[in-house]
Amino acid sequence: MSANSDDIRLLLEQEGPYAFKVSFEGTSIQALHTDEPEPLGGGAGPNPSALLLAGVANCLSASLLFALRKFKNDPGPIRAQISARKERNAQGRWRIARAQVAITLADKAASLEHFERVLAQFEEFCIVTQSVREGIAVDVRIIDADGVEHVPGARS
After folding, report:
1. Would you say 64 and 45 are in contact if contact means Cβ atoms under 8 Å apart?
2. pTM
3. Calpha distance 40→2 (Å, rounded)
4. Nearest-CA neighbor of 31 among 12, 6, 17?
């Protein structure tokens, strides 16, 4: 993949048994520290499942604000809550099959311009939620200490 202005690049570096430092390449954003909960990890930071849910809720919230402002509204601060339960899939692997998001407005819907239109379209602005809903293609390769590339599931 060639780099362009639309690329999102992160660098993860292991800091503990299941803890990682996440750096946001090409930005001045401070690194984030993640970890799996006990007993696997030390619980010193959010785990990947929590980050996924945070991304969904954050993106939906930002998209709602964008849609409200697009129709010249000046909304008060909003609040979002997301919850999900891990479930085992047919192969017995843990997955997040469904999430519930509740976004609370500081304003009464009746006081917002074109609120029904906002509701009808704001989710389409959310890159993260729509990408999760559609399924994200993920290509994986493993590079060993000799620089040899290995592709999981590929035959050598």
Report:
1. no
2. 0.89
3. 36
4. 12
pLDDT band at residue 3 using 50, 70 and 90 as cut-offs: low
User: Quick one: 15 exposed, middle or buried, by C-beta within 10 A (0-12, 13-18, 19+)?
Assistant: middle
Q: Is 115 left (phi over 0), alpha (psi -120 to 50) or beta?
A: alpha
Residue pointed to by tokens 């609370």: 104
Longest distance between any two alpha carbons in the chain, whole Å: 63
**Sign of the four-CA dihedral 32, 38, 39, 42:** positive
For the 47-150 domain, the top CATH level (class) is alpha beta
- 83-93 pLDDT per residue, tens: 999 999 999 99
Q: Provide the residue ranges of all domains of the chain, joining segments of one domain with +.
A: 1-46, 47-150
Q: pLDDT above 70 covers what percent of the chain?
A: 96
Residue 25, beta-bridge partner list: none
- Which residues lie closer than 8 Å to 134 by C-beta, 6 or more apart? none
